[in-house]
Design a protein that fits this description.
Length: 518
């Protein structure tokens, strides 16, 4: 791109769990500049996951400055920005917008014991019907009830509950505003009516005025203030448009904007979203606002995605002296070539971080079955990757049954999609062809697409996606022999294993030793 180029640019920000990524995009979906800043993730107690909300703002400023700070000419060409945030995570703030405690992150499980009470008092089916979300521990609603019970002084002082986008939009524009696609994942938003769920908020003891204003994807939510512009090295008055969660944004960045399409994010959690032109609820998925206004994403989630792979590498991988996680990952990935499909009879069910669709079981735990003395760590590594693929097949079949339509294939993204071998395992297990998004920063691109549409640079979001989203030409096709082998393993063992053990695993999860010191 030449220094004399004056064509408009947009800024897409992926404010995810572990880092904030700021990418400046041109209108062909090519990156012009980018920056990144890491985020801390704290675990002060078992099952707890927290972040300092101020770190979100510090990381955004650092990432944006890394992208545009040294080139005012690029900053001057930016027409709008949009944020795709990590979802369900929220922070309670006071009247001045200052955090009252660390933010509670989506993967936090502290409210698990409260879920049966919510089910009994309000009704899980009612929550699902109103919000599109089956009752689960990742939703904000259970954690707000936890705050009311366990930190009543914070609950009493809370002026607003802000999702990540709302917090950052306030820092940028001075207004407490967010997008429907960011409000929806909290489990407190009525998707069908595009408004906060008043009866559910009342049950929690929360007023509608304590929630940010919510806007449809791509709508203007404000303009950058002088202070924020100075901090970020961006123009004063730059439009900020309403975003969607990082999961849905990844789908938009992968060009999933029509029937039969699905994205697959092989990230910390493995998330798949199937495009739908109408509101639909089913226990096979949770319903999200789509990137194209008026559409939805039917989303499945495997919380133990690359989280489980990382656990394996950090806990069991027997890393060599000085070997980094990245080098260990490359070593085990290469070792897949010498480990047969089926991992020599070893099978993993990847519920290392409980189970969402289709079981919605907060007490679910992982299973590794079929151990023999001949198995090695390489067999376990393959079994984990295959287990995630089996679970994805289970989820996809549930969505297809509810939709009454087969999914054509996946567009993959996320860190796991970098592995050709894992991509092939996914397509061999599911029987679905798989292509990769042309950029691994698909969520930031999805935010950029909304920014471009919101700035009026395209007629509508679909037009922006058609111009900016692309997929890699390489296609992973299922091998017929391996697919037949995996299909038998799936039908005869995998699909039945967790239901057969579910009650026993729930009992195990509730057993704790309380006999004092050993």
């Amino acid at each position: 791109m030449t220094t004399t180029d004056r064509s408009p640019l947009v800024l897409g920000i992926d404010a995810s769990t572990t880092a904030c990524k700021a990418v400046v995009w041109d209108l062909r979906g090519e990156p012009a500049a980018e920056g990144r800043a890491a985020l801390p993730l704290r675990r002060p107690r078992p099952l707890w996951h927290e972040q300092p909300a101020e770190a979100w703002w510090e990381a955004l400023v650092a990432a944006v400055r890394a992208a545009v700070g040294d080139d005012p000419a690029i900053a001057a060409r930016i027409a709008a920005l949009c944020i795709a945030p990590q979802r369900e995570t929220f922070v309670p703030v006071d009247d001045a917008g200052a955090p009252l405690r660390p933010a509670i992150v989506w993967m936090d499980e502290r409210c698990r014991a409260l879920l049966p009470r919510i089910e009994r008092e309000y009704g899980g089916a009612r929550i699902h019907r109103e919000t599109g979300k089956p009752l689960s521990g990742n939703l904000s609603l259970g954690k707000i009830l936890w705050l009311r019970e366990q930190e009543p002084e914070v609950f009493a002082r809370t002026a607003r509950y802000l999702d990540v986008a709302a917090f950052l939009n306030h820092r940028l524009t001075g207004a407490y505003r967010t997008g429907w696609g960011c409000a929806g994942p909290t489990g407190l938003f009525d998707l069908e009516h595009g408004s906060w769920d008043v009866p559910l908020l009342s049950y929690l003891g929360v007023r509608v005025g304590q929630m940010p204003e919510a806007f449809p994807p791509g709508a203007l939510v404000g303009r950058i203030t002088a202070d924020a512009a100075d901090a970020c090295a961006l123009p004063v008055g730059l439009p900020v448009v309403a975003g969607i969660g990082d999961g849905q944004a990844g789908g938009l960045g992968a060009g999933v904007v029509r029937r039969g399409q699905a994205y697959l994010n092989l990230g910390t959690a493995v998330i798949s979203g199937v495009f739908s032109g109408h509101m639909l609820t089913d226990t096979a998925f949770r319903t999200m606002v789509g990137g194209v206004p008026g559409t939805y994403s039917l989303e499945t989630v495997i919380l133990g995605g690359t989280y489980t792979v990382t656990w394996f590498l950090e806990t069991l991988a027997a890393r060599e002296a000085g070997e980094t996680i990245e080098h260990a990952l490359a070593r085990f990935d290469a070792g897949l070539d010498g480990t047969p499909p089926g991992a020599a009879g070893l099978l993993a069910v990847p519920y290392w971080n409980s189970a969402m669709s289709p079981y919605w079981d907060a007490d679910a735990s992982g299973i590794v079955a079929g151990w023999r003395g001949t198995h090695t760590l390489h067999h376990l590594y393959r079994a984990i990757l295959e287990g995630i693929a089996f679970e994805q097949r289970l989820n996809t079949e549930g969505v297809e049954a509810a939709l009454g339509q087969a999914i054509e294939g996946y567009v993959a993204m996320g860190g796991g999609a970098r592995s050709d071998r894992w991509c092939q395992i996914v397509t061999d297990v599911t029987g679905k062809p798989l292509r990769r998004a042309a950029t691994m920063e698909a969520a930031a691109l999805g935010a950029g697409i909304l920014a471009a549409a919101g700035a009026g640079l395209f007629g509508e979001v679909r037009d922006a996606a058609a111009a900016m989203a692309r997929v890699d030409p390489q296609i992973f096709e299922p091998d017929s022999r391996r697919h037949a082998f995996y299909s038998r393993q799936y039908r005869e063992v995998y699909r039945q294993l967790f239901p057969a053990l579910q009650s026993h695993l729930q009992c195990l999860a509730n057993l704790t030793f309380d006999g004092g010191e050993l």
